[in-house]
Amino acid sequence: MRLYDEVIRKWDQLKEAGNPKVLDLSSAATWEDAGKNNMILRSNMAYELGGAEMPLPAMGRTVITADETLVPRDEVLLLGRDLPDIKEECPYARLTVALVDEEKMGEGDALYNAIRDIEYVRYHVNPKGFMMRVSTSHNRESVRVSKEALDSGLNFAAVGKSFIDTLHKNPRVKAVKVIFITDPRFDFDSLKNELKKAEDITKTIDHVFKDLTMDCNICNLKEVCDEVEGLRELHFKNSTPAT
Predict the structure, then answer these.
(1) Is the model's pLDDT at 225 over the cut of 60?
(2) How buried is 145 (Cβ within 10 angstroms: 0-12 exposed, 13-18 middle, 19+ buried)?
(3) Does 229 map to a domain?
(4) Would residue 204 count as lying in a domain?
């Protein structure tokens, strides 16, 4: 299960360049989940992470690993200002890495579906006053933050704990690392490339198991397959006839 490990290591390299702060989860109370009612109108919002008036970097991604050295424990890290300290629109990124039990992930379509199930958790995390706005067509994940939530003490520790708690409802997940980025000096361009690579890896997994094209010479995903450790192994394992 090394499919996303190089992407995760690149995330960590970019993160460490920004001197991340480890947030204290021991004092983070469980924040109310508003579910489908987590609607924040412009008149009620304090600001939008990722920009409302003028689009700023706004991205989010969840990937998996079976390497405990990459996710040794549940933790939330922050590069930039915390929610109570932000006074205007700013860039935003959320990077989530789930440590999984490889034996429970399955193979074939089951593996792809398990990966997507973990990724789509973002649609089920709705901290009250923190409304994620996801556009898959534009590869954006922005956030509206309400004035009321800030007055009540909402911060990234609480939001990160919401992600961790929700992901732990999945029996495949053993630990979760969440990284929030609001520092405008961060290298968002490099991060955008790494997030695209993560999505390309997931699409390639789906492609392999749907057996759409097994001729590597004409496959438009050959470059991804060649670069990512574990993908070619999956490819050729899937293409070997059963005996």
Answers:
(1) no
(2) buried
(3) no
(4) no
Question: What are the backbone dihedrals phi and psi of residue 45, each rounded to the nearest 5 degrees, phi first?
Answer: -90, 150
Span 95-104, pLDDT tens digits: 999 999 999 9
Instruction: Tell me, yes or no, whether 216 lies in a domain.
Output: no
CATH of the domain at 152: 3.30.1650.10
203 falls within a domain: no
More confident residue, 52 or 197: 197
Nearest one of 224, 241, 234, 154 to 6, comparing CA atoms: 224
Instruction: Give the model's pLDDT for residue 204.
Output: 84
- What whole-number distance in Å separates Cα of residue 65 and Cα of residue 99? 5
Q: Please spell the DSSP secondary structure of 35-97, one letter per residue.
A: GGG----GGGEEEEET-SSS---EEEEEEEE--TTT--S-EEEEES--GGG--S-B-EEEEEE
Residue 230 Ramachandran class (φ > 0 left, ψ -120 to 50 alpha, else beta)? left
| pLDDT given at position 143 | 97
Structure confidence by residue, pLDDT tens digits, 47-97: 999 997 778 999 999 999 999 999 999 999 999 999 999 999 999 999 999
Strand-strand pairing, 92-100 and 75-79 = unpaired
CA proximity to 83, closest of 56, 46, 54: 46
DSSP letters, 198-217, are HHHHHHHHHHHHHTS---TT
Strand arrangement of the beta sheet that strand 21-22 belongs to: 21-22, 75-79, 173-181, 92-100, 58-65
